[in-house]
Amino acid sequence: MMEELRAKIAGEEFDYHALLDGLRKYDRPRDKITSLLRQGAVVRVKKGIYVFGERYKRRPFSTEVLANLICGPSYVSLDYALHYYGLIPERVEAVTSITVSRGRRFFTPVGLFIYHGVSMRAYPIGIDQVELESGRSFLIATPEKALADKIQADRGTAIRTQAEMRAYLLDSLRIDPDGLGRLNAETISLIADRYRSRKLRLLSGLVRRVNR
After folding, report:
1. pTM of whole model > 0.85?
2. Are 72 and 120 part of one and the same domain?
3. For a pLDDT cut of 90, what percent of the chain falls above it?
4. Distance CA 54, CA 67 (A)
5. Are 101 and 161 contained in the same domain?
């Protein structure tokens, strides 16, 4: 049964419909799903989202793909994306994402997934799609959007000048100075307009100065 299922599901992350379709030849596929979960052949990440168990996986599952599936629409951003791009040194345990719904946390068998809500106006700009093998892909913020999302989410920080912004980036977030120089000021300016954010306009001006 598992060989047939693996032949039909190429990726390591899949939803209930894919699992049900893979078992459609059986008279009682829902009972088969219950049995697979009990055996650990399939692991339920959350209701309707699964990965293959250790014995049957072909490669490590993608936490980024799972993040997009667990709560949507969403894209990976904030601390996780900043580390993904090498902009901050610390490894991030939780997968952090942006969504248009309310902020949520999901404690799952494969890790913690955190979602921060933003307005529909700010959501669509600055998102990339990363292609993986087996036709899998995930959405992630560009470096500029990930940093902008982080600054906006950190509401307890009062930043009024470019000097304060620079101190916040280098001292509080520990942003890599070289990485800061690789950011695009015009892109940040567009994101600032969507967020209607004075802080992000300060960031855009700072990046423009760094890149002179």
Report:
1. yes
2. yes
3. 92
4. 20
5. yes
pLDDT in tens, 99-108: 999 999 999 9
Do 68 and 46 lie in one domain? The reply is no
pLDDT at 17: 95
Range of the domain at 39: 2-52
**Encoded tokens for 76:** 């990976």
* Judgement on whether residues 32 and 77 belong to the same structural domain of the protein: no
**Mean predicted confidence (pLDDT) in 150-162:** 92
Q: Is residue 112 part of a domain?
A: yes
Residue 57 in any domain: the answer is no
